[in-house]
Amino acid sequence: MNGLAYHLDPSRGRLGLEASDQERPEPGPHQVLVEVRAASLNRRDLMLMDGHYPLPATPGVIPLSDGVGVVIAVGEKVTRAAPGDRVTATYFLRWVDGPQRLAHAAEQYGANHHGMLATYALLEEDPVVHVPEHLTDAEAATLTCAGVVAWAALTTPVPVRPGQTVLTVGSGTVALFAVQHAVMLGARVISVTSTREKAERLRELGAGEVIVRADTPDWEQEVARHTAGDGADHIIDTVGMPTLPKSVAAGAYNAQLTLIGALPGPELTAGDGNPFGSSYLSIRRIAVGSRTHFEAMNQAITEHRLRPVIDRTFPFEQAAAAYRYFSDGDPFGKVVITMS
Fold it and tell me: For the chain, how far is it from start to end, CA to CA, in angstroms?
Protein backbone atom coordinates (compact mmCIF):
# COMPACT_ATOMS: atom_id res chain seq x y z
CA MET A 1 0.00 0.00 0.00
CA ASN A 2 1.46 3.35 -1.01
CA GLY A 3 1.51 6.47 1.15
CA LEU A 4 2.57 10.11 1.04
CA ALA A 5 5.79 11.86 1.95
CA TYR A 6 7.07 15.42 2.13
CA HIS A 7 10.48 16.30 0.72
CA LEU A 8 12.70 19.32 1.22
CA ASP A 9 13.02 21.39 -1.94
CA PRO A 10 15.50 24.27 -1.31
CA SER A 11 14.83 25.67 -4.79
CA ARG A 12 11.37 26.73 -3.60
CA GLY A 13 12.82 29.02 -0.92
CA ARG A 14 11.50 29.29 2.63
CA LEU A 15 9.07 26.54 3.51
CA GLY A 16 10.14 24.57 0.46
CA LEU A 17 8.14 21.40 1.07
CA GLU A 18 6.90 19.19 -1.72
CA ALA A 19 4.46 16.33 -1.21
CA SER A 20 4.53 13.22 -3.36
CA ASP A 21 3.38 9.62 -3.38
CA GLN A 22 5.52 7.21 -1.39
CA GLU A 23 5.93 3.56 -2.24
CA ARG A 24 5.99 1.29 0.75
CA PRO A 25 9.68 0.44 1.33
CA GLU A 26 10.91 -3.08 1.97
CA PRO A 27 13.25 -3.37 4.98
CA GLY A 28 16.72 -4.79 4.50
CA PRO A 29 18.19 -7.41 6.87
CA HIS A 30 18.90 -4.89 9.66
CA GLN A 31 16.10 -2.39 9.00
CA VAL A 32 12.73 -1.67 10.58
CA LEU A 33 9.71 -0.31 8.66
CA VAL A 34 7.45 1.99 10.66
CA GLU A 35 4.04 3.38 9.79
CA VAL A 36 4.33 6.90 11.20
CA ARG A 37 1.57 8.24 13.43
CA ALA A 38 2.97 11.64 14.43
CA ALA A 39 6.05 13.81 13.95
CA SER A 40 7.25 17.07 15.48
CA LEU A 41 9.36 20.09 14.59
CA ASN A 42 12.61 21.37 16.07
CA ARG A 43 14.55 24.54 15.43
CA ARG A 44 17.08 22.51 13.46
CA ASP A 45 14.36 21.73 10.92
CA LEU A 46 14.00 25.44 10.10
CA MET A 47 17.78 25.76 9.93
CA LEU A 48 17.96 22.83 7.49
CA MET A 49 15.34 24.44 5.30
CA ASP A 50 17.13 27.81 5.38
CA GLY A 51 20.58 26.30 4.75
CA HIS A 52 21.94 27.43 8.15
CA TYR A 53 22.44 24.00 9.72
CA PRO A 54 26.04 22.69 9.94
CA LEU A 55 25.06 19.52 8.06
CA PRO A 56 23.41 20.47 4.75
CA ALA A 57 20.13 18.81 3.90
CA THR A 58 20.26 16.34 1.04
CA PRO A 59 17.93 17.69 -1.68
CA GLY A 60 14.70 15.73 -1.65
CA VAL A 61 15.21 14.30 1.84
CA ILE A 62 12.14 13.54 3.94
CA PRO A 63 12.46 15.96 6.89
CA LEU A 64 12.03 15.71 10.68
CA SER A 65 14.08 13.64 13.08
CA ASP A 66 11.27 13.38 15.64
CA GLY A 67 8.36 11.03 15.14
CA VAL A 68 6.65 7.90 16.38
CA GLY A 69 4.94 5.00 14.69
CA VAL A 70 4.13 1.32 14.73
CA VAL A 71 6.46 -1.31 13.34
CA ILE A 72 4.83 -3.07 10.39
CA ALA A 73 7.78 -5.09 9.04
CA VAL A 74 11.33 -5.98 10.05
CA GLY A 75 14.38 -7.37 8.29
CA GLU A 76 15.32 -11.00 8.74
CA LYS A 77 18.19 -10.23 11.15
CA VAL A 78 16.41 -7.64 13.33
CA THR A 79 16.24 -8.46 17.05
CA ARG A 80 15.49 -5.06 18.67
CA ALA A 81 11.91 -4.60 17.39
CA ALA A 82 8.93 -6.63 16.22
CA PRO A 83 5.75 -5.86 14.28
CA GLY A 84 3.25 -4.07 16.51
CA ASP A 85 5.89 -2.27 18.61
CA ARG A 86 5.48 1.49 18.99
CA VAL A 87 8.87 3.07 18.38
CA THR A 88 10.83 6.15 17.48
CA ALA A 89 14.45 6.61 16.44
CA THR A 90 17.51 8.39 17.75
CA TYR A 91 18.63 11.66 16.16
CA PHE A 92 21.96 10.17 15.01
CA LEU A 93 21.97 6.85 13.19
CA ARG A 94 25.18 5.42 14.67
CA TRP A 95 25.59 6.84 18.20
CA VAL A 96 24.58 4.05 20.56
CA ASP A 97 26.77 4.82 23.60
CA GLY A 98 30.07 6.34 24.69
CA PRO A 99 31.62 9.63 23.57
CA GLN A 100 30.20 11.35 20.52
CA ARG A 101 32.53 11.45 17.53
CA LEU A 102 32.35 13.51 14.36
CA ALA A 103 31.35 10.41 12.40
CA HIS A 104 28.25 10.09 14.59
CA ALA A 105 27.15 13.65 13.82
CA ALA A 106 27.55 13.08 10.08
CA GLU A 107 24.46 10.85 9.75
CA GLN A 108 21.11 12.26 10.85
CA TYR A 109 17.48 11.49 10.16
CA GLY A 110 15.72 14.35 8.44
CA ALA A 111 19.00 15.81 7.13
CA ASN A 112 20.88 13.30 4.99
CA HIS A 113 18.72 10.26 5.79
CA HIS A 114 14.97 10.21 5.26
CA GLY A 115 13.07 11.31 8.36
CA MET A 116 9.58 11.09 9.79
CA LEU A 117 7.33 13.40 7.75
CA ALA A 118 5.86 10.56 5.72
CA THR A 119 3.49 7.64 5.87
CA TYR A 120 6.44 5.24 6.18
CA ALA A 121 9.84 5.60 7.85
CA LEU A 122 12.54 3.06 7.07
CA LEU A 123 14.88 2.93 10.08
CA GLU A 124 18.13 1.18 10.79
CA GLU A 125 17.84 -1.26 13.67
CA ASP A 126 20.40 0.35 16.00
CA PRO A 127 18.63 3.73 16.34
CA VAL A 128 15.23 2.22 17.16
CA VAL A 129 13.91 3.18 20.61
CA HIS A 130 10.67 2.02 22.24
CA VAL A 131 8.60 4.88 23.64
CA PRO A 132 6.90 5.14 27.08
CA GLU A 133 3.53 3.42 26.99
CA HIS A 134 1.63 6.14 28.87
CA LEU A 135 2.39 8.82 26.25
CA THR A 136 0.03 9.59 23.39
CA ASP A 137 1.42 9.39 19.86
CA ALA A 138 1.70 13.19 19.73
CA GLU A 139 3.61 13.26 23.02
CA ALA A 140 5.89 10.38 22.07
CA ALA A 141 6.75 12.17 18.82
CA THR A 142 8.43 15.02 20.72
CA LEU A 143 11.25 13.20 22.50
CA THR A 144 14.08 12.55 20.03
CA CYS A 145 15.78 15.94 19.86
CA ALA A 146 14.66 18.41 22.56
CA GLY A 147 13.90 15.79 25.18
CA VAL A 148 17.17 13.90 24.81
CA VAL A 149 19.43 16.97 24.63
CA ALA A 150 17.87 18.39 27.80
CA TRP A 151 18.40 15.02 29.50
CA ALA A 152 22.03 14.78 28.36
CA ALA A 153 22.66 18.37 29.51
CA LEU A 154 21.50 17.53 33.02
CA THR A 155 22.94 14.03 33.42
CA THR A 156 26.38 14.24 31.76
CA PRO A 157 29.23 14.39 32.48
CA VAL A 158 28.32 15.20 36.11
CA PRO A 159 24.63 14.51 36.82
CA VAL A 160 22.54 17.07 38.65
CA ARG A 161 21.91 16.02 42.25
CA PRO A 162 18.75 16.46 44.31
CA GLY A 163 18.76 19.87 45.97
CA GLN A 164 21.08 21.51 43.46
CA THR A 165 19.98 24.60 41.55
CA VAL A 166 19.38 24.40 37.81
CA LEU A 167 19.07 27.61 35.79
CA THR A 168 17.30 27.43 32.41
CA VAL A 169 17.68 30.33 29.98
CA GLY A 170 15.00 30.58 27.29
CA SER A 171 11.60 28.97 26.92
CA GLY A 172 11.87 26.90 23.76
CA THR A 173 11.21 23.18 23.79
CA VAL A 174 14.68 22.23 25.08
CA ALA A 175 14.28 24.62 28.01
CA LEU A 176 10.84 23.22 28.81
CA PHE A 177 12.15 19.67 28.85
CA ALA A 178 15.09 20.86 30.98
CA VAL A 179 12.67 22.28 33.57
CA GLN A 180 10.65 19.06 33.62
CA HIS A 181 13.72 16.81 33.79
CA ALA A 182 15.38 18.90 36.51
CA VAL A 183 12.27 18.77 38.67
CA MET A 184 12.04 15.02 38.02
CA LEU A 185 15.66 14.67 39.20
CA GLY A 186 14.94 16.55 42.44
CA ALA A 187 16.62 19.87 41.59
CA ARG A 188 15.46 23.39 42.34
CA VAL A 189 14.78 25.29 39.11
CA ILE A 190 15.21 28.96 38.29
CA SER A 191 14.09 29.97 34.80
CA VAL A 192 14.75 33.07 32.70
CA THR A 193 12.18 33.90 30.04
CA SER A 194 10.90 36.73 27.87
CA THR A 195 7.30 37.34 28.99
CA ARG A 196 5.13 37.20 32.11
CA GLU A 197 2.74 34.81 30.37
CA LYS A 198 5.54 32.32 29.74
CA ALA A 199 6.76 32.85 33.30
CA GLU A 200 3.44 31.64 34.68
CA ARG A 201 3.50 28.55 32.50
CA LEU A 202 7.08 27.76 33.55
CA ARG A 203 5.94 27.91 37.18
CA GLU A 204 3.21 25.42 36.33
CA LEU A 205 5.90 23.06 34.99
CA GLY A 206 7.77 23.25 38.30
CA ALA A 207 10.16 26.20 38.11
CA GLY A 208 10.48 27.58 41.64
CA GLU A 209 11.48 31.08 40.55
CA VAL A 210 11.05 32.65 37.13
CA ILE A 211 12.77 35.86 36.03
CA VAL A 212 11.33 37.91 33.16
CA ARG A 213 14.16 39.52 31.19
CA ALA A 214 12.16 42.62 30.28
CA ASP A 215 11.45 43.31 33.96
CA THR A 216 14.92 42.36 35.20
CA PRO A 217 17.61 43.02 32.56
CA ASP A 218 20.37 42.18 35.05
CA TRP A 219 18.88 38.77 35.68
CA GLU A 220 22.20 37.23 36.68
CA GLN A 221 22.05 39.37 39.83
CA GLU A 222 18.57 38.09 40.55
CA VAL A 223 19.85 34.52 40.26
CA ALA A 224 22.52 35.38 42.81
CA ARG A 225 19.85 36.80 45.13
CA HIS A 226 17.73 33.66 44.85
CA THR A 227 20.76 31.48 45.68
CA ALA A 228 22.14 33.54 48.59
CA GLY A 229 25.00 34.65 46.38
CA ASP A 230 26.12 31.15 45.41
CA GLY A 231 24.77 30.99 41.85
CA ALA A 232 23.34 28.05 39.92
CA ASP A 233 25.03 24.63 39.86
CA HIS A 234 23.86 23.75 36.34
CA ILE A 235 22.99 26.28 33.63
CA ILE A 236 21.14 25.19 30.49
CA ASP A 237 21.41 28.07 28.02
CA THR A 238 19.18 27.52 25.00
CA VAL A 239 19.56 31.05 23.62
CA GLY A 240 23.26 31.14 22.84
CA MET A 241 25.94 33.78 22.55
CA PRO A 242 23.72 36.79 23.39
CA THR A 243 23.03 35.40 26.87
CA LEU A 244 26.31 33.59 27.49
CA PRO A 245 28.00 36.35 29.57
CA LYS A 246 25.04 36.59 31.96
CA SER A 247 24.75 32.79 32.15
CA VAL A 248 28.44 32.62 33.09
CA ALA A 249 27.97 35.29 35.74
CA ALA A 250 24.98 33.39 37.17
CA GLY A 251 26.99 30.20 37.73
CA ALA A 252 28.17 28.88 41.06
CA TYR A 253 31.82 28.09 41.69
CA ASN A 254 32.62 25.00 39.59
CA ALA A 255 29.21 25.10 37.92
CA GLN A 256 28.47 23.35 34.63
CA LEU A 257 27.13 25.52 31.79
CA THR A 258 25.72 23.82 28.72
CA LEU A 259 25.03 25.55 25.41
CA ILE A 260 22.62 23.59 23.29
CA GLY A 261 23.41 22.37 19.80
CA ALA A 262 23.68 24.27 16.54
CA LEU A 263 22.73 27.72 17.77
CA PRO A 264 22.22 30.47 15.21
CA GLY A 265 23.85 33.85 15.65
CA PRO A 266 27.43 35.11 15.94
CA GLU A 267 30.17 32.84 17.15
CA LEU A 268 32.79 33.81 19.69
CA THR A 269 36.14 34.79 18.21
CA ALA A 270 39.53 35.42 19.73
CA GLY A 271 38.76 39.14 19.78
CA ASP A 272 35.81 38.66 22.11
CA GLY A 273 38.10 38.24 25.10
CA ASN A 274 37.68 35.82 27.97
CA PRO A 275 34.22 34.21 27.99
CA PHE A 276 34.71 33.05 31.58
CA GLY A 277 35.07 36.54 33.05
CA SER A 278 35.99 36.04 36.71
CA SER A 279 33.94 32.84 37.02
CA TYR A 280 35.24 29.33 37.62
CA LEU A 281 33.04 26.91 35.76
CA SER A 282 32.97 24.63 32.74
CA ILE A 283 31.34 25.66 29.46
CA ARG A 284 30.40 23.07 26.88
CA ARG A 285 28.28 22.77 23.80
CA ILE A 286 26.44 19.52 23.11
CA ALA A 287 24.36 18.04 20.31
CA VAL A 288 21.44 15.85 21.40
CA GLY A 289 22.56 12.48 22.81
CA SER A 290 23.06 8.77 22.29
CA ARG A 291 20.61 5.88 22.27
CA THR A 292 21.72 5.07 25.80
CA HIS A 293 20.77 8.61 26.91
CA PHE A 294 17.42 8.26 25.15
CA GLU A 295 16.60 4.96 26.83
CA ALA A 296 17.63 6.24 30.27
CA MET A 297 15.42 9.30 29.78
CA ASN A 298 12.47 7.15 28.74
CA GLN A 299 12.87 5.02 31.86
CA ALA A 300 12.72 8.14 34.04
CA ILE A 301 9.78 9.56 32.06
CA THR A 302 7.91 6.29 32.57
CA GLU A 303 8.68 6.18 36.29
CA HIS A 304 7.56 9.78 36.87
CA ARG A 305 4.72 9.76 34.30
CA LEU A 306 6.10 12.93 32.74
CA ARG A 307 4.17 14.39 29.81
CA PRO A 308 5.84 16.65 27.22
CA VAL A 309 4.41 20.11 26.55
CA ILE A 310 2.56 20.40 23.23
CA ASP A 311 1.53 23.80 21.90
CA ARG A 312 -0.46 22.78 18.83
CA THR A 313 -1.05 19.90 16.44
CA PHE A 314 -1.59 20.06 12.67
CA PRO A 315 -2.90 17.40 10.29
CA PHE A 316 -0.47 15.87 7.81
CA GLU A 317 -1.87 17.79 4.85
CA GLN A 318 -1.12 21.07 6.65
CA ALA A 319 2.59 20.40 7.19
CA ALA A 320 3.61 23.70 5.58
CA ALA A 321 1.28 25.56 7.95
CA ALA A 322 2.89 23.74 10.87
CA TYR A 323 6.34 24.90 9.74
CA ARG A 324 5.03 28.45 9.33
CA TYR A 325 3.44 28.47 12.78
CA PHE A 326 6.55 27.01 14.38
CA SER A 327 8.67 29.70 12.71
CA ASP A 328 6.45 32.73 13.29
CA GLY A 329 3.90 31.87 15.97
CA ASP A 330 6.10 31.90 19.12
CA PRO A 331 4.80 28.53 20.36
CA PHE A 332 5.18 27.40 23.96
CA GLY A 333 5.88 23.69 23.59
CA LYS A 334 6.14 21.32 20.67
CA VAL A 335 4.42 21.71 17.32
CA VAL A 336 3.24 18.27 16.18
CA ILE A 337 2.03 16.95 12.84
CA THR A 338 -0.34 13.97 13.03
CA MET A 339 -0.74 11.47 10.23
CA SER A 340 -4.37 10.54 10.87
Answer: 16
Neighbours of 18 (CB within 10 A): 13
Residues 241-246 have a mean pLDDT of 92
How many whole angstroms separate alpha carbon 303 and alpha carbon 321?
35
Task: Compute the residue count for the chain.
Answer: 340
Q: Options 3.90.180.10, 3.40.50.1980, 3.40.50.10420, 1.10.760.10; which CATH number does 3-142+308-338 get?
A: 3.90.180.10
Q: Which of 305, 173, 163 is nearest to 238 (CA)?
A: 173
pLDDT tens, 86-139?
999 999 999 999 999 999 999 999 999 999 999 999 999 999 999 999 999 999
Residue 270 has pLDDT above 80, yes or no: no
Q: Are strands 66-74 and 31-40 parallel, antiparallel or unpaired?
A: antiparallel
CB 191 within 8 A of CB 226: no
Query: Position 203: which residue type?
Result: R
How far apart are the C-alpha atoms of 272 and 114, rounded to whole Å? Answer: 39
CA distance 103 to 95: 9
Cα 154 to chain centroid, rounded: 13
Residue type, 8: L
Q: What is the CATH number of domain 148-286?
A: 3.40.50.720
* Percentage of the residues of the chain whose pLDDT score is greater than 90: 89
- Alpha carbon distance 198, 137 (integer Å): 25
Cα-to-chain-centroid distance, residue 242: 20
DSSP β-bridge partners for residue 68: 38
pTM value is 0.94
Strand partners, 338: 38, 315
Residue type, 269: T
Q: What is the pLDDT of residues 157-184, one digit of tens each?
A: 999 999 999 999 999 999 999 999 999 9
Which backbone phi and psi does 171 adopt, to 5 degrees? -140, 30
